[in-house]
Amino acid sequence: MVDPITLRRYLYRALFLAVCAMLIFLKLLPLTTEPRSIPGPDLLFCVTAVWIMRRPRWAPVGMIVLVHLLADILFLRPIGLWPALSLLGYEFMRRKAEGSTEISPVVEIGIAAIAFTAIVTANALFLGLVGVQHPGVIAAILHVFVTIIAYPVVMAFCVFVLRVRRRRPSELDGSVVA
Amino acid sequence: MARDRQSQEDYTRPVRRVLIGAMVFVLFCFFALWRIDNPRVERFRAAIVDQVVPSFDWALVPVTRFTRMVEDFQSYARIYEQNQELRRELQQMKSWQEAAIQLGQENARLLDLNKVRLNAQLTFVTGVVLTDNGSPFRRSVLLNVGARDGIQDGWATMDGLGLVGRISGVGRQTSRVILLTDTNSRVPVTIQPSGQNALLIGDNTLAPPVDIADNLEDVRPGDRVVTSGDGKVFPADILVGQIAQGPGGRLRVKLAADYGRLEFLRVLRTPVAPEIASTGGLIAADEAMAAPALPEPEEGSDG
Predict the structure, then answer these.
(1) C-alpha A33: how far from its chain's center?
(2) Which of B1, B12, B13, B35 has the highest number of chain A CBs within 10 A, making it the mutation to test binding with A?
(3) Using one digit for the tens of pLDDT, what is the confidence trace for B124-154?
(4) Residue contact B31–A126, C-beta within 8 A
(5) Spans of chain B, pLDDT less than 50
(6) Are the Cβ atoms of A28 and B68 closer than 8 angstroms?
(7) Which of A36, A76, B133, B240 is most buried, taking the most CB atoms under 10 A from its CB?
């Protein structure tokens, strides 16, 4: 008999993988072939951030790395750099959110914004360091802005539709969980 | 059990840190490998893409199509198809438009060169047609350029294509153009390629007849008619039109200018040709130094 908590954990891990796969898939769709002036938000980051700031155990490091590496490979990005940096960013976010049962959404968005900006900046720096062409400062800034704007939407979706929520105080105490 | 997990958490924290550090290190190694041995890694990437993307293939096409339909706010397949078709056509039209613009520019360049070859001093002032004159027997229009713009009597006027008429009457801000179709209009022309000289006589129709001085047999319908420059009324070689045979066998000129839509007219600044007045004091240097007076433009063959 499987422990219901463990079952739920595995279910949500599968859900995380499914959502990420869906996002990668949607990005691969040839919807707009013409170059757009405003880069789209990094939804993969948003989803992972929401997961990691609520239930880090539902998004294990291995899965995050796997998904991001796959995205790197499929999106023709430099392989490895973005996952490495974002992994550090996720770790930062996890620490910030750890143990607290309630973080106001504004603070959460702030944390995500700081992390994402840092990741993008570090990414640009590294690319510049090794002499890889970078899309440009303005595009990067736009990308950060769009992602930050998209973050609350993703957060609302994950919380209210997928029901990825923080542990209640009762759960932290270790009482029986539904 | 919860207590157990809590302690487990405490225990796993350093492990997790090491794990993440290792992961980041490995990923950086990947990045370094990608940077150093780019072709090999790109081949690897291509292989993975090759594996992954076609497995999505069954979903890619319908989802793409469906999303595009939603984006276009078209729920009916027929309208969607039509929309696609129209877009394709629009794209083709755009390419044609581009071609037309390029041709137009090339044409303008060639015309410019042509103008230079004709006469380097030939410039023009463009005016807007203000009014037609209402009389059924006089063919003239009023332009919004006049003496203020340096317009002088007798200058030739064209639209983009061919000769329209000549300036006759200049006010301060306006000037009147007697059209070639006016019954008073007489213009000396040359018919090419035979080189016959003729007189274009306005007769209140859109195809004024020509009076050919010399050999009638050399002229065929379709020949080009240009101004001859005789009598110094007009600069030479301005296109007038084409020869056409009218009813009754009389040769007429189908005018090149679009008389149905006279909107903007160019007034050609005809430079006054210096006239040789003296017989030339080849020996007496004092007389030769006297500059010949610039003559007034002649009234020429205008009626």
Answers:
(1) 25
(2) B35
(3) 888 887 776 655 566 778 888 888 888 888 8
(4) yes
(5) 1-3, 116-120, 288, 298-303
(6) no
(7) B240
Tokens 């306006």 appear where?
A: B174
HEC states along B42-88? HHHHHHHHHHHHHHCHHHHHHHHHHHHHHHCCCCCHHHHHHHHHHHH
Q: How far apart are CA B100 and CA B102, in angstroms?
A: 5
The per-residue b/e assignment along A104-131, b for 16 or more CB within 10 angstroms, e otherwise, is eeeebbebbbebbbebbebbbebbeeee
Tell whether pTM > 0.95.
no
What's the distance, CA B202 to chain centroid?
A: 30
- Dist CA A97 CA A115 (whole Å): 13
* Cβ–Cβ < 8 Å for B228, B268: no
Give A126-171 pLDDT, tens digit per residue.
888 888 777 778 888 888 999 999 999 999 999 888 888 887 766 6
CB B124 within 8 A of CB B266: yes
Taking contacts as CB-CB distances below 8 angstroms, the residues of chain A near B41 are 79
Tokens of B123: 């410039």
Size of interface A-B (CB pairs under 8 A): 76
Tens digits of residue pLDDT in B198-239: 888 888 778 888 887 677 777 888 888 888 877 777 777 888
Structure tokens at B298: 């002649």
Q: Does residue A45 surpass a pLDDT of 60?
A: yes
Task: Output Rg (C-alpha) for chain B, integer angstroms.
Answer: 39
Tell me the β-bridge partners of A153.
none
Asked if the Cβ–Cβ distance from A25 to B71 is below 8 Å, we say no
Answer yes or no: do B31 and A173 touch at CB < 8 A: no
Looking at every residue in chain A, the average pLDDT score rounds to 83
Which chain B residues are Cβ-neighbours of A29 within 8 angstroms? 60, 63-64, 67
Structural contact between residues A53 and A111, judged by C-beta atoms closer than 8 angstroms: yes
Residue A85 pLDDT grade (very low, low, confident, very high; cuts 50, 70, 90): very high
